[in-house]
């Protein structure tokens, strides 16, 4: 795998999958996008994928297929569905996953390695987190603005030439990446951030600025951060509370117009990732005996939102 073009499939080629797929294709890797959004697939196959970043705009030519149409044997499969679709998506490409296929997940939330582990040996799973933002602006059109970073590690904690080669491929594509044995700290810290802002914005259908404008809502966000960090620490993960509080404070000040990905899901009538974020934190808190009343209350509110979306219940 070292020092050559990789055969890569991106499973879930929405905002993040398209961003990563486009960048890796531009760097010379053989990338195939796999998704179920028919309009998005058609636009990519007809016009190429439009990528807009702070560096400018370009069109990337690469194949985009439904998962069941894919007959390749990827060296690397990058999983970027929402977490609630992980299992269905992997099931649809199960026959394409060889013994040498590595699966990388930079999805938000907890439990990603465990879900992927139902399909791939732990020695071939890489998990991590990324701060790159991605927005699907329309079919065949992805935007990403601002800097980002990727922290990742193999799920079994083992270093290997393949892991380093995948990190090198990402860095070579301009996606700043490190192999980080402490990746679970980063994953939990991001869960603390998302557990606070994504859930409050989604429950209130508000951009980040709406939360920033209400002192008791700001305090709620910080209380959720403290709860998630307490659960992480009870689980032996050295999450840094003041660091995540500062990130949330910064987002409240600087990202007022931002719609967290979970809010985008609610507004589009899609089910959310609440179970793998607040839901997974509450489950861990209950196992470990940590009180998380605010995180639990937000989980309850988002379960109502998800339930209404699923049942098609509205107010009018
Ligand atoms: N967007 C962001 O800025 C960031 C997102 N993340 C995380 O990355 C992950 C992906 O997020 P994002 O890119 O925003 O999500 P998107 O919703 O934009 O993309 C997910 C894509 O997966 C598709 N999909 C759904 N089911 C399947 C399936 N069975 N097989 C193949 N594809 C499927 C969706 O199609 P359809 O829409 O038709 O269902 C959609 O096109 C999430 O875990 C998110 O939390 C992490 C960092 C930042
Ligand atoms: C991009 C970021 C960090 C912003 O909230 C995110 O993770 C999300 O929207 O889910």
Tell me what the structure shows:
The structure is a single chain. The protein has 316 residues and is of the alpha/beta class. It has an eight-stranded mixed beta sheet with strand order 5-2-1-6-7-8-11-12. It has a four-stranded mixed beta sheet with strand order 4-3-10-9. Strand 11 (150-154), helix 5 and strand 12 form a beta-alpha-beta unit. The longest helix has 22 residues, at 183-204. It contains twelve helices and twelve strands. The chain has two domains: 7-180, NAD(P)-binding Rossmann-like Domain (Rossmann fold, 3-Layer(aba) Sandwich); 184-311, N-(1-d-carboxylethyl)-l-norvaline Dehydrogenase, domain 2 (Orthogonal Bundle). It has helices at 15-26, 38-47, 86-92, 112-116, 161-172, 183-204, 208-212, 215-234, 241-254, 261-267, 278-288, 293-311; strands spanning 7-11, 30-34, 49-53, 56-60, 64-65, 76-79, 102-105, 125-130, 135-138, 141-144, 150-154, 177-179. The structure holds NADPH dihydro-nicotinamide-adenine-dinucleotide phosphate and ketopantoate. Ketopantoate binds at residues 108, 133, 194, 197-198, 260-261.
Q: In sequence order, what are the helices and strands, one letter per element?
A: EHEHEEEEHEHEEEEHEHHHHHHH
**How far apart lie the N and C ends?**
56 Å
% residues in beta strands:
15-25%
* Percent range of helical residues: 40-55%
CATH architecture of the largest domain: 3-Layer(aba) Sandwich
CATH class of the largest domain: Alpha Beta
Ligand names: NADPH dihydro-nicotinamide-adenine-dinucleotide phosphate, ketopantoate
| CATH fold node name of the largest domain | Rossmann fold
Strand order of the largest sheet: 5-2-1-6-7-8-11-12
- Arithmetic mean pLDDT: 96
Radius of gyration: 19 Å
In CATH terms, the superfamily of the largest domain is: NAD(P)-binding Rossmann-like Domain
InterPro entries: 6-PGluconate_DH-like_C_sf, 6PGD_dom2, ApbA, Ketopantoate_reductase, KPA_reductase, KPR_N, NAD(P)-bd_dom_sf
Pathway: Cofactor biosynthesis; (R)-pantothenate biosynthesis; (R)-pantoate from 3-methyl-2-oxobutanoate: step 2/2
Enzyme class: oxidoreductase
Keywords: NADP, Oxidoreductase, Pantothenate biosynthesis
């Amino acid at each position: 795998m070292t020092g050559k073009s990789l055969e890569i499939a991106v499973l879930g080629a929405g905002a993040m999958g398209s961003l990563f797929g486009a960048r890796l294709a531009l760097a010379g890797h053989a990338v195939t996008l796999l998704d179920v959004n028919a309009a998005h697939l058609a636009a990519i196959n007809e016009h190429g994928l439009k990528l807009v970043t702070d560096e400018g705009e370009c069109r990337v030519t690469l194949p985009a297929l439904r998962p069941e149409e894919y007959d390749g044997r990827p060296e690397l499969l990058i999983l970027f569905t929402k977490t609630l679709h992980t299992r269905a998506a992997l099931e649809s490409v199960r026959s394409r996953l060889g013994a040498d296929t590595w699966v990388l997940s930079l999805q938000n939330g907890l439990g990603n390695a465990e879900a992927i582990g139902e399909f791939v040996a732990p020695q071939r799973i890489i998990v991590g987190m990324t701060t790159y933002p991605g927005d699907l602006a329309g079919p065949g059109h992805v935007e990403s603005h601002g800097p980002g970073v990727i922290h990742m590690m193999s799920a079994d904690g083992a270093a290997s030439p393949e892991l380093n080669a995948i990190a090198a491929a990402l860095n070579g594509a301009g996606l700043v990446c490190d192999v980080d044995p402490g990746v679970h700290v980063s994953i939990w810290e991001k869960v603390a951030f998302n557990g606070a802002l994504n859930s409050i914005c989604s429950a209130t259908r508000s951009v980040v600025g709406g939360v920033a404008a209400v002192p008791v809502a700001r305090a709620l966000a910080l209380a959720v951060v403290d709860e998630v960090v307490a659960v992480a620490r009870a689980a032996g993960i050295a999450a840094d509370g003041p660091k995540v509080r500062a990130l949330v404070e910064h987002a409240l000040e600087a990202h007022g117009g931002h719609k967290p990905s979970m809010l985008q899901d609610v507004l589009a009538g899609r089910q959310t990732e609440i179970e793998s974020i607040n839901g997974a934190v509450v489950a861990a808190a209950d196992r470990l005996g940590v009180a998380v009343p605010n995180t639990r209350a937000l989980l309850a509110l988002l379960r109502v939102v998800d339930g209404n979306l699923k049942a098609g219940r509205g107010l009018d």
